[in-house]
Amino acid sequence: MAKRPLEGIRVADFSWFGAGPIAGNTLSTYGAEVIRVESETKIDALRRVHPFAMNPDGTFKGGYNVSGYFNNFNAGKLSLQLNLNTEKGQEIAYRLLEKCDIFLTNFTPRVIDKWNLHYHQIAAVNPRIIAAYAPMQGMEGPHRDYLGFGAVLTPVTGISEMSGFPNRPPFGVGTNYPDYVINPGHTVTAMMAALRYRNRTGKGQCIELPQLESVVNTLGTAVVERLANGTSPTRTGNRSLNAAPHGAFRCADDPDSVDSPDRWVVLACRDDAEWQRAAGALGHPEAATGPKFATFAARKQNEDELESLINSWTKDLKAEDACAALQAAGVPAGVVQNSQDLLDRDEHMRSRGYYQYVEHPEAGREAHDGPAFVLSETPGYIAAPAPLMGEHTMDVCERIIGLNMDEVADLLAEGVLL
Amino acid sequence: MTEQALAGVRVVELTDELGSYCGRLLADLGAEVIKVEPPGGARQRNSAPFLAGHEDDPDASLAFWVHNTSKQSVVLDLETEEGRAAARKLALSADILVEDNPVGFLAARGLGYQDLHAAKPSLVYTSITGFGQTGPHAGWAFSDIVGQAMGGIMTLAGELVDPPNMIYGHQADVSASIQAAQGALMALLHAEATGQGQLVDVSAQEAISMAQETAMQTWDFQKKNRVRVGGAGGIPIAIPGSGTLKTKDGYVLLYIIAPAGGDLPELVDWMREEGKAADLDEEPYASLISQLNMGWLTQLMGNPEDTMKYIPLLPHVNEVIAAFFAEKTSREAYETGQERRLLIGIVSTPKDLAENTQLRARDWFVQFPEAPAGKPVEFPGPPYRLSETPAIISRPPRLGEHTAAVLGALT
């Protein structure tokens, strides 16, 4: 196998839930040795929530090691169980941090206070370390200790106000959306920049990623419209200021689509030519040139009618067929896919091998999100499944931290490695 | 002068909507990012909304601004010999190239990965497309909503009776760009260590699909599809202390029954202090409220007799709580509630964000003293704070602003 770009980099991953562990997952995929530090005294709740792997008899497997939610974000990591509520636990943490290149956490500043894991404390023992903190609001400021997680961050950052149909309340987007790409992706971007700086100067540094700032940064033009123009835009459903039609249109139901038989095709017509091709592809070329729809301005003016018309064209079509016809005409189009589609039915995803399957000792064979960027010469891959809770405690203590077996036995007996 | 992490790195980008945020991340971190644009600018330059009073001015598109800070702009016409020759020369002066053109477009103009890699083996060539460089859909047309649909997140957003919802803010474009920035920088570290460049291939469909949350594993393990559950969260009855509630001037999201922070009795304490607890302190409501949290609810569902006893009480509790929040501003509900350790999120409007106490206290916003269209404006700050090498945001370039200087300096 080709060498991966982060081989030789060791990461102390003191994070939990989604936003932190996914950053560590990316580092692990690209070759870093990532040590997930966790404790039964403050367990990552994702170890205990659905979806759980199943037994052949249809019952759910139990325990801390069979949640697909947790396992997908922690592939290839080592698990060290360490109780940071004890003084000795904090001492061990410091001995680990001396041996690491990167520290990662998304605990709140209150917890960082309690565990003595602030940057100035860590840098005192390891000035070369790159320490990344990703709290919800920031390490300082009047809202420093506000509570939250992805589902609360979604409204606080403006995503809820700006998404969905205007006749509905701003109830959000159905998931803890910012946890999965925006926050971990920004975190790793900053880490890579800091690694480059360290390569050139030998200096480590502190990265603070207030999730609020990270997410508002990606909120399109909404805040700039307020700041520059004094307006306060709101949600407009699936419509666009720059394309019409632009939305999701109902197609024929698909009984093979489990639990979600309703099928939809999306399309975006960004100019008159795309619209003419779309109307043609859906079998109604004449509709494209009438006065109500011929120009962008006219289509925006008559958008309700335009959307009803397209719905009447698509309602009996198979979504995949409508999409294929539109794409054949060069119109941006897609099917609203569910996970069954992505894992089993999307031939394109399969041919690219995005999902990677690994054998987990308790969960069994499980799918993982693969690397979301592909490096041609130094590809990332999932080298091992997610660790069992505490699976590598002995290994990390002895091989990395340098404790002997007696010391480890004492720490186990004292409840430090819990 | 502050040193920046990517000082000395030259990036040439040939991007429009899909890839320009990648270039922005690199530019704000200190790389010299030169954006090659077609005459008149590409789609993003000509996209609404615009700075008020400057409609259709390619230097005043806010859609362009938000993804193109800190860059230089060079106009080249790739449909001419001279344009292609200059673009090639420029590309070969770069450490990183970022592009988001249809597969094969640049190769047909002598600017493909194979060509440039042969001429400069250390070049990190970053291609961002809807579906990646390989596979049966590699040639498909793309726009943001297509990535959100095909990547599996729209199916999770919205009410079941409505069409699936797109998430605002070009999230497939942004996700692809963020994935690409990580890949480009990893490849840069590798190139700086070994001299070996490579192709970074990003598919927007793949880039956003991690945001399916648990839906992917739910199918993998249990052969069930998660579907969109809308405002009610898929629960047949509204649970007190959870959900999106109306305020005097907007909405807040309550998650009080979650394990973090205070529980319902702490909310009722607050309501009582303001004389709004009504009969929630009396039976049968008081004993219900004292135990109502997520764990208790889960247990309750397994006991039909208790369920029948408590469920009829919930609507009244919901009404009293709703009436309490209906008389508060969103900001008051959020800030006072959070200070009382209650898990409440404001549904921020753009105005709320511009006035957000935390963002203002931390001086997050930046100033463009001279915005491209002439007027000073305030602008959102960077996604992260690096203690030694901060991200610095400077204004986006005017179309072709740096053409003469950049091309003149090419030898």
Structure description:
Chain A is an alpha/beta fold. Chain A folds into 2 domains: 10-218 and 353-413, 3-Layer(aba) Sandwich (Rossmann fold), CATH 3.40.50.10540; 246-349, formyl-coa transferase, domain 3, CATH 3.30.1540.10. Chain A has helices at residues 19-29, 68-72, 87-97, 109-115, 119-125, 150-156, 159-162, 182-201, 211-216, 222-229, 272-281, 296-301, 303-314, 319-328, 339-345, 347-352, 393-401, 405-413; strands spanning 10-14, 33-38, 78-81, 102-105, 130-133, 205-208, 246-250, 264-268, 333-335, 356-360, 364-368, 374-375. A 6-stranded parallel sheet of chain A has the order 3-2-1-4-5-6, with helices on both faces. Chain A has a 3-stranded antiparallel sheet with strand order 7-8-9, covered by helices on one side. In chain A, helix 1 links the parallel strand 1 and strand 2 (33-38). In chain A, 58% of the residues are buried. Chain B has 17 helices and 12 strands. With 411 residues, chain B is of the alpha/beta class. Chain B folds into 2 domains: 10-212 and 359-409, 3-Layer(aba) Sandwich (Rossmann fold), CATH 3.40.50; 233-246 and 251-348, no CATH class. Chain B starts with 9 loop residues before the first strand and ends with a helix. In chain B, the strands form 3 sheets. Chain B has a 6-stranded parallel sheet, sandwiched between helices. In chain B, strands 7-8-9 form a 3-stranded antiparallel sheet, with helices on one face. Chains A and B meet through helix 2, helix 6, helix 7, helix 8 and strand 6 of A and helix 2, helix 5, helix 6, strand 6 and helix 7 of B. Strand 12 (374-375) of chain A pairs antiparallel with strand 6 of chain B.
